[in-house]
Specification:
This protein is of the alpha/beta class and 252 residues long. It has ten helices and eleven strands. The strands form two sheets. Strands 8-7-6-10-9-11 form a six-stranded parallel β-sheet. It has a five-stranded mixed β-sheet with strand order 1-4-3-5-2. Strand 7 (133-137), helix 7 and strand 8 (159-163) form a beta-alpha-beta unit. Helix 6 (116-128) runs parallel beside helix 10. The radius of gyration is 20 Å and the shape is elongated.
Length: 252
Amino acid sequence: MVITSVSNPHIRYVRTLASDKRAREADGVIVLEGANLIDALPVGAEVAELLVQEGKADKYRGIIERFGNYIEVSDNVMRAVSSVNTPQGIVAAAKFTLPEADRLKPAVIADGITDPGNMGTIIRSAAACGIYDMIAIECCDLTAPKTVRSTMGGIFSMRVSYVDRASVAKELSGYKVFALDMRGENIYNISKRELDCAYALAVGSEAHGISDGIRAAAYKIVSLPMSGATESLNAAVSLSVGLYQLVYGNKI
């Protein structure tokens, strides 16, 4: 049977999860859209709801066989559930919660990042560099569908600690913090011996930069060299370039 009404309890549940952070936290469930993201779920992950657009079951047969039962929905229901202009035709509500960051490992610090696209890029870059721990200081919701989609599956390998500004000093004790700021010293001058520890690279929002709490906790304020024609870089780009240098760059 094809579900054609957005009032159906299964559809209402998925739509509530997509829009309500408290509902996601209460059930430990996130909403995933698109085959690639659903395929990226960790082995053994449980899918509470799997919605497939009418006529696309054969296309997504592999996902259906992996997770079991699915609900076929009409085009208009899929559009109502989807958060993109052109739905791929498959949405899942999956059991998933982010574990807390490991304080003994290198990390990234997202300081007031409120744009889901930027946050997703930061998580993707961190995962690509083998950095799986994040300190998120008053940032956007990492479990919101737009943020999760922007991570392209990187979210599934991350450990995240959420921190308010009053707790920054306490939470960052034990980390050697390198904070990105356009007036800092050249990040390419950081030596290998300075990274033989649980270091963390911090980036602030494009509107406000790094906060006073991060400045106070920083071991060094660092910057990316730029020509005079460029004043600044996007926050996620800055973090990505800086992190690649720390992890993969040649060290002194």
